[in-house]
């Protein structure tokens, strides 16, 4: 009879398979084999095998900076990576060592897994976890993950388990011919997608797949991706999280939620089981300031500080002392699902809300049914020659250009 951890491990895998999140038999086998609970000591076994994040380290402000990722996301990224027996793999973000153990299962005895993390205590703990569970062959390195690990290069797969705004050049340079990069890439604010990049004949890196995800950012090195949090109420009830490429006038936004509110219904509806991720990606690309994440808990919602009857994430944009965000309302007339609405506050709240609402409608009419491709062009000259009407957006990153394009049938 199987012991309890083994039983729970099989239950977790069956849950992921039944939900359609896990389809690759080799990844399923690895998840059934590696004992996740051994990589999060001190955590109850039931929690270790829940389909949830286990946070393992926090900064001085109490924010998590390291974790064992949600198994659903772990499975998705391993499937994206397409790791084969005998592959050489570099993992950026060692964490607990659990994902490195899964990679070792997939590469087999003829493969090689190298995993790097910036914190010595994380590296030491993960190395102990790996040794205790039979995966001592994984090479663990303490260092700046943005630099990769040249002594073990080239790699067939580089997989990052930390979010990155810019893709470090070292990762691309250390990938073997025909190899792939899997990276949770943050796009113009708070939108992160796990992207599989492969190099084409012209030397560009083109997405083969990308999926919505969320990860802690790179930190402690040359490609740090710091997040900034702006308290909009002075007491922490509502805060706006933004990133380094987003410029927010904190002083001008003080008390913005106390200013008159404009609310616009867009007429754009979503079914109950339909993801908003593609709308958010469009808005992040189309709006000058990208998108930040507006955090408002139950207290703030009950006090009427924000319009969030469904408790969904609120994605926001700003312009000096003006704030606008997307929310959801009842479509009315017996309709199912939700309708997207936009709320604006501040000196130009109505104008910004109208701009945001117009992009929601444009996405619905122009791009809702289209696929999206991401392309990285390292060392390319700065360029802003995008075309919103054609669903093509071009952004300059420190390392080159990122193009996000909604694809017409003829593309």
UniProtKB/TrEMBL annotation:
GO terms for molecular function: methyltransferase activity. Keywords: Cytoplasm, Methyltransferase, S-adenosyl-L-methionine, Transferase. The keyword Transmembrane helix does not apply. It is found in: Cytoplasm. It comes from the Bacteria. Its EC number is 2.1.1.77. PANTHER family: PROTEIN-L-ISOASPARTATE O-METHYLTRANSFERASE (PTHR11579), PROTEIN-L-ISOASPARTATE(D-ASPARTATE) O-METHYLTRANSFERASE (PTHR11579:SF0). This is Protein-L-isoaspartate O-methyltransferase. It comes from Dactylosporangium cerinum.
């Amino acid at each position: 009879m199987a012991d309890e951890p083994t039983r729970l491990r099989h239950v977790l895998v069956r849950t992921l398979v039944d939900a359609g999140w896990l389809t690759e038999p080799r990844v399923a086998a690895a998840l059934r084999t590696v004992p996740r609970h051994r990589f999060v000591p001190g955590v109850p076994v039931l929690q270790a095998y829940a389909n949830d994040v286990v946070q393992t380290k926090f900064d001085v402000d109490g924010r998590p900076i390291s974790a064992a990722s949600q198994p659903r996301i772990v499975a998705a990224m391993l499937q994206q990576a397409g790791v084969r027996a005998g592959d050489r793999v570099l993992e950026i973000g060692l964490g607990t060592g659990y994902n490195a153990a899964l990679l070792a299962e997939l590469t087999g005895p003829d493969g090689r897994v190298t995993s790097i993390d910036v914190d010595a205590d994380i590296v030491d703990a993960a190395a102990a976890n790996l040794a205790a569970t039979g995966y001592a062959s994984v090479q663990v390195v303490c260092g700046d993950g943005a630099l990769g690990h040249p002594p073990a290069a080239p790699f067939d797969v580089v997989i990052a388990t930390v979010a990155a705004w810019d893709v470090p050049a070292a990762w691309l340079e250390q990938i073997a011919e025909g190899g792939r990069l899997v990276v949770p890439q943050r796009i113009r604010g708070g939108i992160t997608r796990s992207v599989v990049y492969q190099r084409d004949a012209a030397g560009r890196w083109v997405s083969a797949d990308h999926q919505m995800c969320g990860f802690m950012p790179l930190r402690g090195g040359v490609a740090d991706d710091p997040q900034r949090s702006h308290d909009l109420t002075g007491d922490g009830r509502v805060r706006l999280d933004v990133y380094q490429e987003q410029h927010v006038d904190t002083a001008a936004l003080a008390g913005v939620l106390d200013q008159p509110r404009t609310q616009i219904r867009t007429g754009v509806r979503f079914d109950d089981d339909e993801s908003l991720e593609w709308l958010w990606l469009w808005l992040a690309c189309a709006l000058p300031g990208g998108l930040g994440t507006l955090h408002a808990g139950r207290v703030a919602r009950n006090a009427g500080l924000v319009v969030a009857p469904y408790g969904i994430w609120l994605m926001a944009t700003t312009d000096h002392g003006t704030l606008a965000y997307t929310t959801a309302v009842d479509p009315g007339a017996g309709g199912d699902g939700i309708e997207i609405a936009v709320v604006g506050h501040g000196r130009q709240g109505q104008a910004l809300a109208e701009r945001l609402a117009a992009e929601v409608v444009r996405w619905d009419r122009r791009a809702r049914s289209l696929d999206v491709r991401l392309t990285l062009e390292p060392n390319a000259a700065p360029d802003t020659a995008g075309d919103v009407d054609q669903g093509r957006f071009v952004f300059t990153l420190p390392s080159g250009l990122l193009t996000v394009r909604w694809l017409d049938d003829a593309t």
